[in-house]
Amino acid sequence: MDRFLFPAWVNSLVVPTIGAIGIGAIYLGGLAVYGASPANLVTGYKPEQPVPFSHKLHSGKMKIDCRYCHTAVEHAAHSNIPATSTCANCHSNEKDAAGQNALVAVHTNSPKLVPVRESLATGAAVEWDRVHDLPDYAYFNHSAHVARGVSCVSCHGRVDTMEVVERVSPLNMAWCLNCHRNPYPNIRPVDEVTNLAWQPPEGKTAEEFGRELAELHGIKPNTDCSTCHR
């Protein structure tokens, strides 16, 4: 029986094929490393920001409400990073119509605030490094949770005690499903969602009180795939 011989032109495909396999292996390996990196999955991710903003000072010591900076959490699917103009409310020497400082300016010449002053002067946004970032295939609506009494602390932890914000929750599918299946420990009165130190009424656990609120307001989180993957 005659042996089958590949035609000669097949030889020209050997090097490109090996190259494609190599590139594919590098791509898949890089994708796996990226997907499992602290920035995307692991708790404890704490990037250095262009401005050393202290939540411990602003939210904790000064008691500034989360919504003063993150204005969209109650009304939009995505929580906004505050505009530089919000920082300027306290850290700018801009004058009002009468030629007076609109507010008492704080640390206007601090070298730590150079990116803020440059942003105000140029209109270019400060390049903040996102700490909590879900993959594009997962849909999450901030307002749907906040409006039903799920506090910032349930996902982001006690940011009012953090000098540098870090990721304290894995934010993976299992973690989200666990909450949807048993949301009660994370439900509190809506007007207490930004009070990160809130405690349930005396004599009741967070789960017991949350169950009462869920029954009162008809809170029944979905667990079907289309809830998050649309």
The major sheet is characterized as:
none
| Gap from first CA to last CA | 57 Å
Sheet/helix structural class? mainly alpha
- The helix content, as a percent range, equals 25-40%
Protein architecture, described:
The longest helix has 25 residues, at 11-35. The protein has helices at residues 11-35, 55-61, 66-69, 84-91, 114-122, 142-146, 152-156, 173-181, 206-217. It is flat. The protein has 230 residues and is an all-alpha fold. The protein contains nine helices and no strands.
Per-chain topology:
Blueprint: H1 11-35, H2 55-61, H3 66-69, H4 84-91, H5 114-122, H6 142-146, H7 152-156, H8 173-181, H9 206-217
What is this entry, summarized?
The protein has 230 residues and is mostly helical. It has helices at residues 11-35, 55-61, 66-69, 84-91, 114-122, 142-146, 152-156, 173-181, 206-217. Helices cover 37% and strands 0% of the residues.
List descriptors.
230 residues, mainly alpha, 37% helix, flat
